[in-house]
Design brief:
This protein has helices at about 40-50, 75-85, 105-110, and strands spanning about 20-30, 35, 50-60, 65-70, 115-120, 125, 130-140, 145-155. It is α+β, with helices and mostly antiparallel strands.
Length: about 160
């Protein structure tokens, strides 16, 4: 008989979601690839006075996406780019190419990844793992203006700059 896995959990944390704080990040990309948004999200939460709850990010585009990935070794991001390129190559005979050969592959890569993320916040801290970061993935080769809606729902200090 297999041994039971060791599982433990912290005591439940109960809060009333008395605050909803929203902002839009305007990001100008220069080329395809991963752009770390973690510090921008952390700054938004600090300005919101966020204490406990969750933050949601939503990218308002169909050829860019969001992910949480390793931030320690840059070869991870390079390999992920290679994997996405293999899954949706530019030269696969796509019919939708109105904006160039990377147009349809960008839509497919967005479909395979995510357009929104939710991250818990506890004691004012994003509950990301040690090596995790929040990334915008630009799937197009040329520069684009991207908008990411960032929304915190939970408890916040009433002394935050957004509450004034």
């Amino acid at each position: 008989m297999a041994a039971s896995p060791l599982i433990s959990r912290s005591a439940p944390s109960v809060v009333s979601a008395g605050s909803i704080v929203t902002s839009v990040l305007d990001v100008q990309t220069s080329d395809r690839g991963f752009l770390d948004l973690t510090s921008e999200v952390a700054q938004f939460l600090k300005e919101a006075g966020a204490v406990e709850g969750q933050v949601t990010l939503f990218v308002r585009h169909t050829s860019a996406s969001l992910t949480i990935q390793e931030n320690a070794d840059p070869t991870v991001l390079a390999d992920l780019t290679t994997a996405l390129d293999r899954l949706a190559p530019e030269n696969a005979g796509w019919r939708h190419d109105a904006e160039g050969p990377d147009d349809m592959p960008a839509h497919i890569k967005t479909m395979l990844t995510a357009t929104s993320l939710q991250i818990p916040l506890l004691k004012g801290r994003l509950m990301l793992g040690t090596w995790q970061a929040i990334y915008l993935i630009e799937h197009r080769r040329r520069p684009h203006a991207r908008e990411i809606v960032v929304q915190f729902v939970g408890t916040a200090n009433s002394t935050s700059s957004s509450a004034k």
